[in-house]
């Protein structure tokens, strides 16, 4: 099909002359639309207001893509809107390849990339391609529910592994694999792992290079393919520093910025056993439904065949728009955008955790802190009306009611709620208490995500453990974030006495 001059009567392609789009035009933000520096002198709120007030002063650039190419190799609707190769538009392939090479620096030479329609679909394609019905898949004990949902119809069975403040625990992984009992489990040892190492959904944990090496080595030993679903890679916000100790950010050059990011599994993958899923959802927009695999060429070929029988290829309009954006920005512009984007989310994360620090008494843990830049905090209630002397019964004011690991990446704060001292704990158990508290918070006008939905295996009423909520700071304005934490505090005060 690609041979120049070939007269192909073999396909069933509609004639591009009948496509009713003569050209498409886009107006895009310039890459330096958001600042690269935070100012510690500014109040937490002022940056938000700057963000909103600047919308009328946005600096933009425009692009137009016509139906037919002016020069060979140009993006053109004639090909972009035609049935195409599952591998995507050649220009997009080039941009993605350059990006992977410069940013993730894979550890072996002949890696391949292949576009997909977002990480959700990418993972579903992997499930259909490399798993047999009844195969187990190693997952974290708390996992993105859609990843589990994609496996269920294919009969793949989640095998949860314990986590700590850095995400999946290598100790727990080794134990699970070493002690694998085929007859008790009713399945052979898994050969696939699904993992979200940066800003994990739902726990917000981020894994450092050392842990990745440990897990990779175990996967080499037990022959496990690692599927790295990494939508939050560029939302690496760094360690949370309490407001009073915060200093201004220094600007990093491009290489220093890339070096500052926790490396991908690709960096340690000397055997080609990693399938990395990248998506434009969090760096450009989710509606684009565009991302890509990076993996060894054999896996890429199989995934390409699987794509041909489903989406065929990502949407042609999407490819035109995202490719035009990236060609306009160039590599340096996209890196500039990503740097600023990370900073935007950092400021949101800081502001949200500052709200918690105002509402609750946050005590940093002394036992498991500073893992991969994250600190765990125990939260207890602050006495609101201090003129009333606290009685012996007021344990709620001194005992932690919940803890959180201040995330160093992503969009989520994961709350672990300690229900043991609740008056109804012995009769209700933690699951019912989680639902009760979640309902009361919702009725007060704030919606958290209840922890149980992130368990890869069903949570029973008598399952021992703690309550959990996933709360997101990515998409609300400052008043809403502040109000949400205040409402949570008010509901919790009542709840501990119910
Ligand atoms: C872990 C994880 N994977 C995948 C996705 C979705 O990615 P995409 O929009 O590329 O399908 C999300 C986000 O919602 C996520 O948290």
TrEMBL record:
Q: Give all residue intervals belonging to the Aminotransferase class I/classII large domain.
A: 78-487
Q: Tell me which SUPFAM superfamilies the record gives.
A: PLP-dependent transferases (SSF53383)
Q: Name one GO biological process term.
A: alpha-amino acid metabolic process
Q: Which CDD domains match?
A: AAT_like
Q: Which residues are the signal sequence here?
A: none
Q: Which keywords does UniProt give here?
A: Aminotransferase, Pyridoxal phosphate, Transferase
Query: Transferase as a keyword?
Result: yes
The cross-references to InterPro entries, in alphabetical order and at most eight, read: Aminotransferase_I/II_large (IPR004839), Class-I_PLP-dep_aminotransf (IPR050859), PyrdxlP-dep_Trfase (IPR015424), PyrdxlP-dep_Trfase_major (IPR015421)
Which GO MF terms are attached to this record? pyridoxal phosphate binding; transaminase activity
Q: Which cofactor does it need?
A: pyridoxal 5'-phosphate
Pfam families (UniProt xref): Aminotran_1_2
Q: Which family does it belong to?
A: Belongs to the class-I pyridoxal-phosphate-dependent aminotransferase family.
PANTHER family according to UniProt: AMINOTRANSFERASE, AROMATIC AMINO ACID AMINOTRANSFERASE, HYPOTHETICAL (EUROFUNG)
| Name of this protein | PLP-dependent transferase
Q: Which organism is it from?
A: Rhodocollybia butyracea
């Amino acid at each position: 099909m690609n041979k120049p001059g070939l007269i192909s009567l073999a396909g069933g392609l509609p004639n591009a002359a009948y496509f009713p789009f003569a050209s498409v035009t886009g107006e895009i933000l310039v890459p330096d639309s958001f600042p690269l520096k935070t100012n510690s002198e500014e109040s937490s709120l002022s940056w938000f207001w700057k963000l909103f007030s600047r919308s009328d002063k946005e600096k933009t650039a425009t692009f137009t893509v016509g139906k037919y190419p002016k020069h060979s190799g140009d993006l053109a609707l004639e090909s972009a809107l035609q049935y195409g190769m599952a591998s995507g538009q050649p220009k997009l392939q080039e941009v993605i390849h350059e990006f992977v090479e410069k940013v993730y620096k894979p550890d072996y030479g002949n890696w391949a990339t292949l576009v997909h329609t977002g990480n959700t679909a990418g993972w579903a394609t992997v499930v259909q391609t490399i798993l047999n019905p009844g195969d187990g898949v190693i997952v974290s004990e708390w996992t993105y529910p859609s990843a589990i949902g994609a496996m269920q119809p294919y009969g793949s069975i989640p095998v949860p592994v314990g986590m700590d403040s850095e995400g999946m625990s290598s100790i727990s992984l080794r134990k699970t694999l070493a002690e694998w009992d085929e007859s008790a489990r009713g399945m052979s040892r898994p050969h696939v792992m699904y993992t979200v190492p940066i800003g994990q959904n739902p726990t917000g944990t981020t894994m450092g290079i050392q842990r990745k090496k440990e897990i990779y080595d175990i996967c080499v030993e037990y022959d496990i393919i690692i599927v790295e679903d990494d939508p939050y890679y560029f939302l690496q916000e760094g360690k949370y520093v309490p407001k009073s100790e915060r200093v201004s950010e220094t600007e990093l050059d491009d290489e220093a910025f890339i070096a500052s990011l926790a490396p991908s599994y690709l960096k340690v993958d000397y055997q080609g056993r990693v399938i990395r899923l990248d998506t434009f959802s969090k760096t450009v927009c989710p509606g684009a439904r565009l991302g890509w695999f990076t993996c060894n060429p054999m896996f890429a070929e199989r995934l390409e065949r699987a794509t041909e029988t489903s989406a065929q290829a990502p949407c042609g309009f999407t490819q035109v728009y995202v490719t035009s954006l990236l060609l306009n920005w160039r590599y340096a512009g996209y890196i500039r955008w990503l740097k600023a984007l990370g900073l935007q989310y950092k400021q949101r994360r800081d502001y949200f955790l500052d709200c918690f620090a105002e509402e609750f008494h946050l005590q940093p843990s002394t036992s498991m802190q500073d893992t991969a830049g994250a600190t765990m905090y125990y939260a207890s209630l602050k006495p609101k009306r201090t003129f009333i002397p606290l009685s012996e019964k007021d344990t709620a004011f001194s005992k932690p009611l919940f803890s959180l690991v201040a995330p160093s990446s992503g969009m989520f704060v994961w709350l672990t709620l300690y229900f043991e001292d609740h008056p109804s704990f012995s009769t209700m158990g933690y699951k019912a208490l989680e639902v009760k508290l979640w309902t009361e918070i919702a009725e007060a006008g704030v919606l958290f995500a209840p922890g149980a939905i992130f368990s890869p295996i069903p949570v029973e009423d008598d399952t021992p453990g703690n309550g959990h909520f996933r709360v997101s700071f990515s998409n609300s304005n400052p008043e809403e974030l502040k109000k949400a934490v205040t409402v949570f505090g008010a509901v919790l005060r009542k709840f501990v006495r119910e």
